[in-house]
TrEMBL record:
<protein>
    <recommendedName>
        <fullName>TetR family transcriptional regulator</fullName>
    </recommendedName>
</protein>
Amino acid sequence: MLRYAIRTEIRLITAELATDLARFPALSAWSTEDLNILAGLFVNAMTVTAEAIEEAPDEETLAEIKQVAVKQLRMIALAVGGWRSKP
């Protein structure tokens, strides 16, 4: 029951993010499928990061987790410019 609720919320967050991403001029011509995939990449990266932060044993590990998260999100964002979505 709890896993189902969590999955449902993650799907909702992903769908809402895809809708928000579609409002960016550079992404307005992207297909719905591609927008959902991009949103999923962001949400999945942050979900894994949130889990890691919760389990971080010390401040040094926490700082490393945050640094990796920033890099992951930057890589995703930078890759967007090279993607050619097809309707």
